[in-house]
Amino acid sequence: MDGQGLAFQEHPISWEGIDVLNAHVAVLDVAGRVIDVNNSWRRFGRQNHADSDYIGMNYLDVCRAAAAGGDRRAARAGKGLDALLAGRAEHFSMAYTCAARTFRMRARTISHPAGRVMVAHEDLTALLIARRDRKRAEVGLESARSEHAATVADVYEELGQSLAAISLGALALDRAGADGSALTTIRLAVDEARRELKLLRYKTRPARRGGQGDV
Hints:
By secondary structure, this protein is of the alpha+beta class.
């Protein structure tokens, strides 16, 4: 996912730079204690009535306590952060849900005299909703196209049968000695109508997978 919230994963940043990140960021020391957080972290905490900004608390201890209560997400997060703090890994990422919202937690080791790991939480809810709505719109559009094509196909068959009946009638008139110029006019009109029907059906066929229509 692009955006400022993930910039720290691609390029080293100064500690002071965490306040420009959109993600909720915390910096952990070698023991896993929170030693700094950014404004987004504090703002999110206030919006959700957090007791504090968690500075001074041990992030791993919080994860372990939640894991002991049966929270598998906390257990996974604690395991990933433990690997970072122990130097067994450099990156860690996981998605999780909280209060009907979807977040992604990303963490990485940093080079700093006091800080060891930087943790960022991003709210992906709006992005996922937008993707879901777009998918629904695409499905709805494709359904409408298919229904339209089916209607045109029905009309094509009905008119085709009518034109066939007219052609048979013209043939019968010809055999009965009817006026030749009138029969020619009928045949030309029938042929032209058939060509227009074929063109209409071709234009309204649903596109094949991959975005290419019939050729």
